[in-house]
Write a structure and sequence with these properties.
heterodimer; A: mainly alpha; B: alpha/beta; Alpha-Beta Plaits; four-stranded antiparallel beta sheet; 11 helices; binds adenosine-5'-diphosphate; binds magnesium ion
């Protein structure tokens, strides 16, 4: 077996294993989909009236790409918590004692979490359509929108893999991630337009990659108004490029780092 | 031990440190192909560390180790293909069924789909898990998990198997069952390195034993050789009052085959004796009319504690790192000998 086909085969075995867990613990999928549905309804109907969005685009159209982005970024934290759990339960030791590829456990994990994120987006999109969200662009553009979201989430998964292997306690991984993820997703154009932020936060939000992801999704789904003023920052004028820069950067740093940590880590 | 066979495991001067803790301070051992080595020691002695280095999970800080002639550091990948590891805590995926667990591990050993499946079914049968094969491992008892874990480490028919405390925490019945499985494997020619805190267990399963303490080998040999060093059975008495201890020591001195030990707190006196139940009867006769209040009396086979007291002058309680929270159990419940 060549090295590459070994990586692919082992990663497929691990992905299958991770997806079996999703099948056996339906709560996972229920929570992964219920909380975004709740967010959609909450923002749409509780805050929706209070939030002004530029142009004549409806708040539902403005909101949904933001919810997509927040949900998948949060969804990616699963990667860290699950790896920490595997470490705690001694499974990583078992895997490391097997003649399998060194990256397969990580690839299998991140790919399974990508799958879960895809399911979350699908459910959210259906919910969104029910409350007034619309895709106003072409099919390829819309597909591009979903891809940008998922690709970015995949890169975050590798960051979370590093966190999980370092922190090693699932609950702590979760809490630690929320401390980082909430500011990142809230100090962004996720739920409110950037113009409403005080200046310092506004600059941060403009260059926050989450804002770029949301902007890219809005552009690609046709959820921005043609007549609205163009954003000031380069990051938001070229949101797809800016998002992909972050994605590539994250992967270049965190994939090798995670594999290295994995090869050395062990349950005490 | 068969002489002339190539060793399956060779460890020379193995050193491993964790920060300030020296877990292994130069361990040497050799396990001939097809034999069973019992690595014996109390909690914190370094048993797991030896296993983890041999299973390529940890990099040693000094010395070298070979498994089936392959260096565990430089040729780690090939070593992994030749070994099976059952760690101290069962590493099974709770959400997968027993069958799925084994099939997954088979695939990761590159057995291919068909072979993985047939080996999984075969091992589930052999380890009495066939009925539970399609239940998630979450529902398994501790003993079943251990068996599944061992089955997983056997799926690719490894030449060398590491079993880290395979019976710790099992109830007496499961323990006996586990002993049978291990004995069967050994009969089948698998080289086994087994760690345990129980002299009795190593004596029963292993061809030879190595006793380690604070990362150093303090004794090695066959079970009989070790027991010869430690002495035969022990007569143990617990008395009701403190002054009784002296009376007992005094009156029973002629029976002692070695130095008696006294635990002041529990007022327990332990005296090496030869002659088994005769010695017990004789002891009771000698105490007649002495006024000593005997709360408990019995004969006991030597255990790891006795090995330690003899070899180091310390009990296993004080053996490990400072503050080790729990010392080696005295002996497996199923083997407690004598007339308690
Ligand atoms: N990952 C680790 N980090 C720090 N200390 C460790 C680690 N693993 C083992 N030790 C220490 O090394 C010593 C030997 O441990 P171990 O090999 O687990 O002993 P045993 O298996 O015989 O109980 C103990 O003092 C233990 O605390
Ligand atoms: Mg141990």
């Amino acid at each position: 077996m060549s090295a590459l086909s070994a990586v692919v085969a082992d990663s497929a075995t691990i992905t299958r294993r991770n997806l079996i867990k999703v099948k056996r613990v339906p709560d996972l999928i229920v929570f992964a989909t219920l909380s975004p549905i709740m967010f959609v309804l909450l923002f749409r109907y509780v805050f929706g009236g209070a939030i002004e969005v530029p142009g004549d685009v409806s708040y539902a159209e403005f909101l949904l790409p933001g919810i997509f982005a927040q949900t998948i970024v949060l969804g990616s934290t699963t990667t860290g918590a699950s790896l920490a759990e595997d470490l705690q339960k001694g499974l990583i030791d078992r895997f490391r004692s097997l003649p399998m590829s060194r990256s397969a456990v990580l690839i299998g994990r991140t790919v399974a979490d990508l799958g879960l994120n895809a399911i979350s987006i699908f459910v959210m999109a259906l919910t969104g359509l029910a409350v007034g969200w619309r895709i106003n662009s072409s099919v390829p553009e819309a597909i591009g929108g979903f891809l940008v979201l998922l690709v970015f989430a995949y890169a975050i998964s590798w960051l979370m893999a590093v966190v999980g292997l370092l922190v090693r306690t699932p609950e702590v991984v979760n809490n630690a991630s929320f401390i980082v993820i909430f500011p990142l997703t809230f100090v962004a154009n996720t739920f409110v337009p950037l113009e409403s932020f005080p200046p310092v936060l506004q600059t941060f939000a403009e260059w926050n990659p989450v804002s770029a992801v949301v902007q890219a999704a809005r552009d690609l789904f046709g959820n921005t108004v043609a007549g609205a003023p163009p954003p000031d920052a380069w990051s938001l004028q070229n949101p797809v490029a800016y998002t992909l820069l972050w994605t590539v950067g994250f992967l270049a740093v965190f994939v090798p780092l995670a594999v290295r940590l994995y090869s050395r880590t062990s349950t005490r | 031990m068969t002489s002339g066979s190539t060793p399956a495991i060779v460890v020379e001067g193995l050193v491993k440190r964790f920060g300030d803790t020296t877990a292994l301070a130069g361990v040497d051992l050799v396990v001939p192909e097809g034999s069973v080595l019992g690595l014996l020691g109390p909690n914190g002695a370094g048993k797991t560390t030896v296993v983890r280095v041999l299973a390529t999970l940890l990099q040693p800080d000094g010395g070298r180790a070979e498994v089936v002639g392959l260096d565990v550091v430089r040729e780690a990948a090939q070593v992994r293909a030749a070994i099976g590891l059952t760690g101290q805590y069962a590493a099974v995926d709770e959400y997968l069924t027993g069958y799925e667990n084994l099939e997954m591990v088979g695939r990761l050993y590159r057995l291919g789909k068909r072979e993985s499946r047939s080996r999984a079914a075969e091992l589930l049968e052999r380890f009495d898990l066939a009925d539970a094969a399609s239940r998630p491992a979450k529902t398994y008892s501790g003993g079943m998990r251990r068996r599944l874990d061992i089955a997983a480490s056997l799926i690719a028919r490894p030449r060398v198997l590491f079993l880290d405390e395979p019976t710790t925490g099992l109830d007496p019945r499961s323990r006996l069952g586990m002993w049978e499985f291990i004995a069967d494997l050994a009969d089948g020619g698998t080289t086994i390195l087994l760690t345990t805190q129980y002299l009795e267990e190593a004596d029963r399963l292993a061809d030879s034993m190595v006793v380690i303490d604070r990362g150093r080998v303090i004794a090695r040999g066959t079970g009989d050789e070790l027991k010869a060093q430690v002495g035969g059975q022990r007569l143990e008495l617990t008395v009701g009052r403190e002054p009784d201890v002296m009376v007992v020591l005094d009156r029973l001195r002629p029976l002692a085959a070695g130095e008696a030990q006294v635990d002041d707190q529990t007022r327990r006196v332990s005296i090496p004796v030869s002659g088994g139940t005769d010695a017990l009867a004789e002891a009771l006769r000698r105490l007649e009319g002495s006024g000593v209040e005997v709360l408990d009396v019995g004969l006991r086979r030597p255990d790891l504690d006795d090995v330690f007291l003899t070899l180091t002058g310390r009990g296993t309680d004080e053996a490990g790192e400072p503050g080790a929270e729990h010392a080696a159990g005295r002996e497996p419940a199923t083997t407690s000998g004598g007339a308690r």
